[in-house]
Amino acid sequence: MPKGEPIITMDKVMLHYEDGVPILKNISLSLHGKSFHFLTGASGAGKTSLMRLLYMGVKPSSGMLKMFNNDVTRIPPEGLFELRRRIGVVFQDFNLLPHLTVLENVALPLKVIGETVRRRECQAKEILDWVGLGNCFNLFPDTLSGGQKQRVAIARAVVTRPDILLADEPTGNVDENIAHKLMNLFYGMHKMGACVIVATHYRQFVDTFHYNELTLENGRIVLNANRATKGDV
Fold first, then answer.
1. For a tag site, which of 43, 140, 184, 201 has the least CB within 10 Å?
2. Which residues contact 148 (CB under 8 A, 6 or more apart)?
């Protein structure tokens, strides 16, 4: 694990929704930049809820969550915008904007941070070529297959080279060859300094790519194993 301040710190974090039933229970973690983590666990174990916490889509019910050394439990909702700009997210349901083309969807985060039209189109085209969608720039999301939508969502998440990349089941709608290519893309983000967290139930990837594994069981971390080979984290 790299030295220096953790990029994510959780201390005895609890999360429950309106019914009061705890989803996450006493989660304590410290994750650094330039690290790669698989988040594993059975359906209902709390993987998506943990991802929502890390994206700051929800706040902890109790405990402390620090992102980039900022205690998000003490920041009002409007103050979270700048922190979120440093995070790329791949959602299970893609969250593509139907009225924008593939190119416009991927370029949107660059527009938000003020990049020029030329630069954002160039960067969006480059990443779309990488994920095999170089012939889809002008298509709209409703004309794409599930696997194509997944790749657009991933391209959009990484186009700004975020400090944290959260990917929730990112290979679930693509074939194995594309899945390996996407994993290599995530690896490249990690090597450039990002903290990458990939939630997955696909055991083959967890066993093939020897990165840290965080395992959730009934809302608790039951395994926090550093399985990475030397130089990977």
1. 43
2. 133, 136
- Token couple for 211: 């990165």
Q: Are the C-beta atoms of 38 and 194 separated by less than 8 Å? A: no
Q: How far is CA 87 from the centre of its chain?
A: 7
pLDDT in tens, 85-143: 999 999 888 899 999 999 999 999 999 989 999 999 999 999 999 899 999 999 999 99
Could you report the per-residue pLDDT of 15-35, keeping only the tens digit for each? 998 777 899 999 999 999 999
Cα 32 from Cα 41, distance rounded (Å):
22
- What backbone torsions phi and psi does residue 110 show, to the nearest 5 degrees? -70, -35
Which CATH superfamily, name and number, covers 1-86+163-233?
P-loop containing nucleotide triphosphate hydrolases (3.40.50.300)
Q: Could you give the CA distance from residue 187 to residue 170 in angstroms, rounded to a whole number? A: 13
Prediction pTM value: 0.89
pLDDT of residue 2: 43
Place of tokens 């790299």: 2
Contact 167, 90 (CB under 8 A): yes
